[in-house]
Amino acid sequence: MNPDNNQLPRPTDKLTAFLREYFSEAPLLIEPLLGDASTRMYFRIRRDGETFIAAVYAEPFDVTTFAYLDVTQLFQTAGIPVPEVLAVDGRRGIVLQQDVGDWRLQDVLLAQPEVARQVDYDLALHLIVEIQKTTALAQARNSIAWRQAFDDEKLFWEMTYFFRNYVERYHQWRLPPEQVAVVLGELFALTYRLARVPRVVCHRDYHARNLMHHAGKLWVIDHQDARLGPATYDLASLLGDPYAALEEEFQAALKERFWQLHIAAFGTKYYASRRQFDHEYQLMLVQRLLKAIGTYAYQFVVRNNPVYLSYIPIALRTAARALEGIADLPAVAHLVAAAIECEPQPETRVVALSGAGPPTGS
């Protein structure tokens, strides 16, 4: 999150009223921050040398069932570093929390030496395992992270989200009905397998923009969508992260390191063999990347936000490499290969948006 000096939007009206009640009459400075792909708005509050972050939601919420508060409490109880919630106003849709700075892992990667990058990613892998260890606690607390899951419905919805927003809206490809049926059939087969593996608590959006450098450690943010899912979910999200674009060799080393950490923590509870783990990881990587591509496309075609377009080619290439090791998704592999051909040059994207160049069956 970075300062944005544009004129303050109208949500500051309810924020100002909330801050007046919380801080009494102390002088405050409110700075709007650039947020994420959600509808939340963020502000940095400065007061007497202290800083805080206020998240302003589009709608009111019930504090007793609010997912962000639920998961924050779960993770804090388990010792996972998440920003402390200082005050909540459900009627106004506001959460005031600890400020963990502006330095995302994505930003730090640009300048840090290799040894520092290795340390950061090793910490990130440890945090995945710590999040997975909260599974029993989430069940005991009846947390939202236990009651929500990457089941058949959720996983396949994400694949139709990709198809609708990237294939149909972004490229405006109109494929023959029989080809659509084949592609969606393969995507359903992919998600069917992933929905039937043993589940652990997952962060759900674990990448270099949601890990913050602050006070000498990594902090986890944007964790409100935590839910049960495959143990490879957050790993695929971190290693295949288009924001970081990690080299294949580094990804392989990190995957090996995670395997060691996972086995040390859980033994063979989730994987009977390394081969089973590797195969699930490839499937998960494809699913996770296609969902991300769908989000990037949605941001552009529906919300007129081009910020994420540059990450689409990176995600496509990583998905294509993962598909090389999956023999029974040929139509999906063909679609991804055709999409890669349309992405490199800006003028190609213009042609694609006009409806030209859809992939055809082979």
Keywords:
Aminoglycoside_PTrfase, 362 residues, alpha+beta, disordered N terminus, Phosphorylase Kinase, domain 1, globular, 2 domains, two-stranded antiparallel sheet, transferase, 9 strands, Aminoglycoside 3'-phosphotransferase, Chain: A, domain 2
Please describe the topology of this protein.
Blueprint lengths: L11 H12 L5 E5 L7 E7 L2 E7 L10 H11 L7 E5 L4 E5 L6 H4 L5 H19 L2 H6 L3 H4 L4 H19 L6 H18 L5 E3 L8 E4 L2 E4 L6 E3 L3 H7 L8 H19 L7 H28 L10 H12 L6 H13 L3 H8 L9
Antiparallel strand pairs: 1-2, 2-3, 3-5, 4-5, 6-9, 7-8
Helix pairs in contact: 4-10, 7-8, 7-11, 8-11, 8-13, 9-11, 11-12, 12-13
Give the strand tally.
9
Helix content: 40-55%
The biggest sheet, with number of strands, parallel, antiparallel or mixed sense and barrel status, is: 5 strands, antiparallel
CATH homology group of the largest domain = Aminoglycoside phosphotransferase (APH), C-terminal lobe
Q: Give the terminus-to-terminus CA distance.
A: 45 Å
Strand % is: 5-15%
Supply the CATH architecture of the largest domain.
Answer: Alpha-Beta Complex
Q: Helices and strands: which structural class?
A: alpha+beta
Low-confidence stretches: 1-5, 346-358
Lateral strand order in the biggest sheet: 1-2-3-5-4
CATH topology of the largest domain: Aminoglycoside 3'-phosphotransferase, Chain: A, domain 2
Mean pLDDT, to the nearest integer, reads 91
Q: Give the helices and strands as they follow along the chain.
A: HEEEHEEHHHHHHEEEEHHHHHH
Overall geometric form: globular
What's the alpha carbon Rg, rounded to whole Å? 21 Å
What is the C-level CATH assignment of the largest domain?
Alpha Beta
Number of helices: 14
Number of domains: 2
GO molecular function: transferase activity
Domain Aminoglycoside phosphotransferase: 30-262
Keywords: Transferase
Protein name: Aminoglycoside phosphotransferase
